[in-house]
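4.2 Preliminary Data

To establish feasibility before requesting continued support, the project team ran the inverse folding procedure on a target of 74 residues. The structure was first converted into the token representation described in Section 3, and no sequence information of any kind was made available to the design step. The complete token record follows.
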């Protein structure tokens, strides 16, 4: 059995048995392209690093300079 990486991303419009080629019904924290070689080979996204030195955001050392509102449509 060959398993292929879902390079076309998530597709939730059909049953899992009738999905288009190259899609998946569920995935989390993955990316298609290798950032170093720009090759489509799939892999896990790197972990997030902590921002700042641990002080509270909005303190003297890390003042809040701008805020925006983002929306999401599902």
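Position-by-position output of the design step:
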């Amino acid at each position: 059995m060959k398993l292929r990486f879902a390079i076309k991303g998530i597709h939730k419009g059909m049953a899992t048995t009738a999905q288009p080629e190259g899609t998946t019904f569920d995935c989390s924290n993955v990316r298609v392209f290798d950032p170093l070689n720009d090759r489509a080979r799939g892999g896990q996204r790197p972990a997030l690093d902590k921002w700042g030195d641990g002080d509270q955001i909005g303190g003297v050392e890390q003042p809040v300079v701008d805020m925006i509102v983002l929306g999401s449509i599902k």
